[in-house]
Amino acid sequence: MSSKKIQYIIKDFLAQPLPILDTFREKLFLIVFCGTFATFFLFYYNPMNANHWQHDSPIGSFLTVWSAGILGAIVLAISQFLLRPKFNLMTFNVGQFSLWLILEFWLLSLLFFFLFREKKVPLFEEYFFVLQSTVSIAIIPYALACLLLAVRKLSRQPPTSTLPIVQQVPPAPLAQYSFKDENGKIMLAINLKQLLCLKSESNYIAIFFLQNEKVEKKLIRSNLKKLSNELKVFPNLLRVHRSYMVNLENIASVQRKKGSYQIELNKLPDMPLTVSEKYKQFFEAQIAN
């Protein structure tokens, strides 16, 4: 196998969407699960004789080692609820998730290093030990939480029928639209009134829509340029950015920010969308009407 083909396989794998930790409940579950797991693990099992470590930091001496689980949960909360919106990472692909995981572990290790370090030990040796301890303790609950979330999502997906279609499917009503993948296979058919937005994620399109008043997300392998051309016949679906288009009927609010507009959609308060300069004038005309 050539090196270029290997690079292509790796690149394609890293670009695969990873539909976990993209809702408020999933982020909260990760934080609570990791914090609780780490707290009880440190308290009951005392790994590496942690309760007998000596700390030169006054705060580290005041805090008990098992309180690191609570501190870790706070760091994860800051990462998931404050930093991710700043970087506009509402959803992950495999590569983005891997880099974000490294960032979170690095932040955790820095916090524990400054709180619990021993100045008698050489700086780099001490930090390497703290980093190793942080990763070894945090990786287990983090991986378990992500695994549970993934299993829960898979269990909620309707089973795919393998039986051949023997009857012709009647045409969908005008209010309904069938989203197809790049091979022309129908992946999702919904009433467009339930559509919130379409978001480009590498080689995929994330479709956010309402089902029984809950936000659902469906990924299909396609591109936004092709879909936006197909959806031009629906005036309420508007392209506002190179990476997404929105349903005007499901906009909760529009705010003027830094010379442009920030859109908040119904049921998606933690995913604000910004209107880019290219589409701003047309967007203004549409909302004015």
Number of structurally distinct domains: 2
Query: In one word, what is the shape?
Result: elongated
SS summary, helix count: 8
Biggest pleated sheet: 5 strands, antiparallel
- Kindly report how far apart the N and C termini lie: 57 Å
- Helical fraction equals 40-55%
Adjacency order of strands in the biggest sheet? 7-6-5-9-8
Radius of gyration (Å): 24 Å
Mean pLDDT: 81
Q: How many beta strands in the DSSP annotation?
A: 12
Secondary structural class: alpha+beta
Strand content: 15-25%
Secondary-structure element order, as H and E? HEHHHEHHEEEEEHEEEEEH
Low-confidence stretches: 58-62, 161-174
Main attributes of the structure:
289 residues, 2 domains, alpha+beta, single chain, five-stranded antiparallel beta sheet, OB fold (Dihydrolipoamide Acetyltransferase, E2P), three-stranded antiparallel beta sheet, 23% strand, 8 helices, 12 strands
What does this protein structure show overall?
The chain has 289 residues and is an alpha+beta fold. It has 2 domains: 3-156, no CATH class; 176-288, OB fold (Dihydrolipoamide Acetyltransferase, E2P), CATH 2.40.50.1020. It contains 8 helices and 12 strands. Strands 7-6-5-9-8 form a 5-stranded antiparallel β-sheet. β8 and β9 (244-247) form a beta hairpin. α2 packs antiparallel against α4 (68-86). The longest helix has 34 residues, at 123-156. It is elongated and about 70 Å long. Mean pLDDT is 81; it is low at 58-62 and 161-174.
Short account of what is shown:
Helices cover 46% and strands 23% of the residues. It has 289 residues and is an alpha+beta fold.
